Amino acid sequence: MRKIYEPENMMEGELLQSMLASEGIESHITGRHLLGGIGELPVFGLLGLAVQDDEADRARQLITEYNGAFPLSGDEPDSYPDVLLC
């Protein structure tokens, strides 16, 4: 396996892992068990997203496209329930 991306946090890592799985690419989040050591370990570079070597280029391309995507306009609701407008 090859590390292809460093997610900012566990949520981003799991989101990208799910996106890759939907494209048929199996991935693994490295360093997830090190997060409890923050304070003792450096904060950056703990997490990594790894895929099989032969899937690395395609996975990088998908992540780049995902990170460069813009939300579709008009998808936002006019109001959000339980949100206080100030």
Automatic annotation (TrEMBL):
Organism the protein comes from: Pseudomonas abietaniphila
What is the residue range of the signal peptide feature? none
User: Taking every annotated instance into account, which residue ranges of this chain make up the domain DUF2007?
Assistant: 1-66
Identify this protein by name. Putative signal transducing protein
Highest taxon above the source species:
Bacteria
The organism's lineage is: Bacteria, Pseudomonadati, Pseudomonadota, Gammaproteobacteria, Pseudomonadales
